Amino acid sequence: MLDRDEIDALFAADLPEPEHWERRFPPRSLPAGAQVTRFCPSPTGAMHLGGIFVALIDKAIAGQTGGVYVIRIEDTDQEREVAGAADVFERGLRWSGLLADEGGSRGDYGPYTQSQRADIYMTYAREFLRQGKAYLCFATREELAALTKEQSAARVMPGYYGRWAIWRDASDDQVRERLAAGDPYVVRFRSPGKIGRRVGYDDLIRGTLTQDDNHNDIVILKSSAVSPRLPTYHFGHLVDDHLMRVTLVIRGEEWIPSVPVHLQLFEAAGFEPIPYAHVAPLMKQEGSTRRKLSKRKDSEASIEYYIAAGYPPDAVLYLLRGLANGRLSNLPIPEALEAPLRLEECGIAGPLVDLAKLEDIAADVVAAMPSPDVMEAVMEWAELYDPQIAALISAQRDLARRALDIERVGVDNPRKDLRKWSDFRQVYGYFFDSLFEPVTDPSDERFGGLDPEAVRRLSGKVLADYRDDKTSDGWFEQIRAAALATGFAPSVGAFKKDPDGYVGSIREASQVVRVLLTGTTRSPGLHMVADVLGEEEVKRRLGAVLRLT
Predict the structure, then answer these.
(1) How far apart are CA 89 and CA 43, in angstroms?
(2) Spatial distance between the Cα atoms of 301 and 296, rounded to a whole number of angstroms
(3) Which 3 state secondary structure label does DSSP give 55?
(4) CA separation for the pair 237, 469 (Å, rounded)
(5) pLDDT digits over 279-309, tens only?
(6) Which of 6, 421, 510, 511 could form an S-S bond across to 2 if both were Cys, CB 3.0 to 4.6 Å?
(7) How far are the Cα atoms of 93, 368, 409, 523 from residue 412, in angstroms, in the given order?
């Protein structure tokens, strides 16, 4: 083992001792039972919905215990880093209402980006080397590949251990020779693990787990040929969780195999181990089977999918809270969003992300919102994703508000056809004359196969006798009178009894007028639609099908 002076010479002369960082980041003064949680995205791609799921649990547990929710950017894998990913993360977290109590420029335990904490990791890596708990490894890529090939041929577990840990017991002279030559090296942890030994620990979601002990001498500090030198995930999370005084680590179940490594590192560093809670992955139904929601295969795996579609954030949060704790899905939305989350109620089977269910939840969320709030939310979304709609609402705010109010204000069961902001164009677009394309073809399939001449006659009669009546009964009476005058039956029953005696029933007649005014076969009450459109526009639309084409 190199002596202390030789080890210290590998690092900056002014590198602080561990005590410096311990004083710089002292234990937090928090109420008894308060939890310090952290969410640690890696900027290597889009923000996965599963990340939002974990962040939601992190924030809830910290908040309801009077603790602190930290966001730390783990960017040590700089080869895979995607430019701008950190900004995408912040956007997704801001949209979800999951911004941190500490993170970025907020908080006293930063920096909160790992690439800015290199000196801190150097201190603790140096301490591991001083204590003989780590060693320098000069193995080249080619040598490591040869070791892996040899292990495969021998049908043994792959890894850097035993006789394949070729630098673990190297002599000091060998190490000095390679250092003098300027050869690059990594720092490896000297694992105390034994093959075949089992270790157990308590997971706060899954209970007691046992698994094989770690016997690999993992890399804790990356190559000396790279600047700045950064730790691997395993070592970085050890140092950061300790110094940020994290009390609970909530993360995805994919990290369960790493727990033995992490327990060894905590013990080697002399740090109190931190409890873990491993969350099951979000799932997708595919035919008769379920699989993990994949950011490579599934567009809905990215939080950007929900932002771009214009789902209300509360709808997504309600869905995710219900997936975390099933009891919350049975509560009214406002209550469920405020109710405490419980780790012991998180399942170990991956919960299913059901987009059809989300649509229903979103419809309920939007139905409960005041129309001005809906309009502002649509505007904010449209400015980025549908500028034409944003411009129309801005120019015709009164029209947009009145359209939104239809069957929403003053009713016990408001309309629920607007589920997300991207639906606005389809649901309310026909109120704007610049978006509406008048129906000029009397044989249009939306008329349900009625005789085109019957469509023309009915439209002409409604137009000729049109009165700007704002009552439901008055409006229907206009249609009824025009329908009877142009050969339609007074009821569905009468038409069924004598289908040859009529061109259609009053139901088909009403649908003709609906299509002419809205371009759709489903809409709110026509008297309310007509009131918003105004008499001149109503007449223009009724008459469009009478034009010669």
Answers:
(1) 8
(2) 8
(3) helix
(4) 70
(5) 999 999 988 999 999 988 899 999 999 999 9
(6) 6
(7) 34, 11, 9, 18
Burial 170-189 (b: 16+ CB within 10 A, else e): beeeebeebbeeeeebbbbb
Q: In sequence order, which residues have a C-beta less than 8 Å from that of residue 544 and are 6 or more positions away?
A: 438, 439, 440, 516
- The answer to whether the CB of 241 falls within 8 A of the CB of 266 is no
pLDDT in tens, 496-506: 999 999 999 99
Write phi, then psi, for 113 (nearest 5 degrees).
-120, 125
The residue among 186, 286, 264 whose CA lies nearest residue 229 is: 186
Nearest C-alpha neighbor of 238 from the set 137, 343, 127: 127
**What's the burial of 218, exposed, middle or buried (CB within 10 Å: 0-12/13-18/19+)?**
buried
Phi and psi based region of residue 340 (left: phi greater than 0; alpha: psi -120 to 50; beta: remaining): beta
pLDDT of residue 549: 46
Cis peptide before 273 (omega within 30 of 0): no
Specify the 3-state DSSP secondary structure of 249. Answer: strand
Average pLDDT, stretch 367-385?
A: 95
Cβ–Cβ under 8 Å, residues 381 and 387: no
CA atoms within 13 A on the CB side of 278: 16
Identify residue 465 by its one-letter amino acid code: D
Rounded to 5°, angle at Cα 283 from 350 and 298? 160
